[in-house]
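Whether sequence alone determines local backbone shape is best considered at the level of individual chains. For completeness, the protein is quoted in full, as a sequence line and a line of structure tokens:
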Amino acid sequence: MPISNKPLLPIFGIATCLAFLCLTGCGGASDTAPTPAPKPVLDNVTRTAAAAATAQTNQLCSVIQPFYWEIGDKSQKWGSASVNKAGTLVSYNEDSVLSVASASKWLYAAYVAERRAGVLSAQDIQFLHFRSGYTNFTFSGCDPADTVASCMARGRNGIQTPGNVDKFYYNGGHMQTHANLPAPGMDLGTLDNAALATEMRRLLGSDVNLSYTQPQLAGGVRTSAKDYAVFLRKLLNNQLKMAALLGTNAVCTNPATCPGAVSTPITTGANWHYSIGHWVEDDASTGDGAFSSTGAFGFYPWVDASKTYYGIVARFDAAGSGNESAQCGAQIRKAWLTGLAQ
């Protein structure tokens, strides 16, 4: 039989098309990727809804009820709510005046930055990094009637431990000693509660309402979420020298992983760093780089890593509850930044 001179390409083309049609129209596999779920539109309405849902239902937040949360930017508050607990009449809002414990540290460090016009000495940095060796200060180390100096003189408050010098040791003695140093130090030794509050507000701003229950720089402040938010917005607006110091000169803090650390209050095992009177939440596995100053009674203020948003979890609980507030606050922050409830 004679061999046809017609080209074979059309036959192969038809076969290929038939095979393709069989695969796509006869139940075969397809290379078409599934349509991805739409990403949330990141307007503040979406962010607020995500943050509110997280505060209400996330397990890490359920365990700290009741509390108040707030998130805003340099201009204003955008989202907030009081999250209450069934069976209790206790409720917190933006005006609730609370003892903020170690959230006082960020305020004092900001005061020092103002006094130094933003340029800290090596001594300032050592003390504000908690590496001065003054590590014998007790949790409630001052009497309400004390001055900064008389509080320093109580018990072992003013005694330095040489073995702790240049090692991170979270303790109120560093700031108490630093505040009491004579000029060119802060020279605040003669100030009592009222005078100390007046002096802090002189540089932080008269619009930041605060008082002291004891003249303890690292933990004596009483204030509200509303007033602490004024301070945080000033950071976001670069109205305070601390704004440029966020995260600077940070040192490692976890004794389990850092030979330069002796004691930390972070019980979650996170490898955070400590900057000038505030934490840097930069653990490689769980951190997001936020700046914060959590207090032992559960008051937790923060600024996100981009320095765009601030937030607060406000409540009052037994000493040692700051870690739980930080964990809830981080979830609320993530919900706000992603627009997705956590």
Observations:
- The two ends are 76 Å apart (CA to CA).
